[in-house]
Amino acid sequence: MPSTPTPSLAIEQEVIDGSLRQASTPGGAVLLMTATLQPPANAVARADPAARLADYAAALTYYLRLPADTVDRIIFADNSASGIAAIRQIVTSFPHDKSVEVMSFAGNDHAVSLGKAYGEFKLIDIALAHASIIKPDDMIWKVTGRLKVLNLPALHHAIRRVQPDIVCDLHNVPWIGTGRWRNNHRMDLRVFAFRPAAFASAYQGVWSRLSPFDDTSMYAVTLAARGRLRVLPRFPVQPALDGVSGRHQRNYAAAGQRLKSLARSLMRTLFPFVWL
Fold first, then answer.
1. What's the pLDDT tens digit per position in 203-233?
2. How far apart are CA 190 and CA 112, in angstroms?
3. What's the pTM value of the predicted model, to 2 decimals?
């Protein structure tokens, strides 16, 4: 596991086992939900803490209901030191078969100008260093905590056959996404998966070493890791997202977003070499 990046960091955390929890579930993965319950001023468009908590509650409830052979453990990591009481209440409000580790810490004490990716990977480093429910051979799914990945079972079972160290979506098609005709290289940071040792090898501490640090940086870092790790740079199927973008207040269920997802799904099947 990664070493603790901030030894003196105060973390409020608790592991809560659901009443239906089994001793072990073959094939089950760890889900890491990254969260900022109270974002800094002017950091995101969806800034209202109440709206964000409602998003996290809906997503967490959805993931708690997933089959245990997809996800049998969940880590909910908040980097705004908002405490764990509200999330703990959600976890204990109905029966489920998961082990849930809830943690909250002050990990968002950097300039907003450093970007979302900076804070996201700093959060992941801290969460992995302090989590107690991760095993060395686990597959860990990282998701933006306010979003639901509606086809996560299909994604998990598809990659389980391949047994990669890292699996993600890299994009390199000009124009789409940024409006640039050249150097449109980026990694989708909303959902990706990794094994603990692979994360330590490829990603640990990158947020503190690269400047600027963003989804373009992660594209380069991930491609560089292919020489020493089993990296799957494209998901076998298109991730189906539900929720609202924090940066743009864009609803992924809107018609335009569904059309974009359909186009990417078709391209993934018909022309898998095109990283749309």
1. 999 999 987 788 889 999 999 999 999 999 9
2. 19
3. 0.91
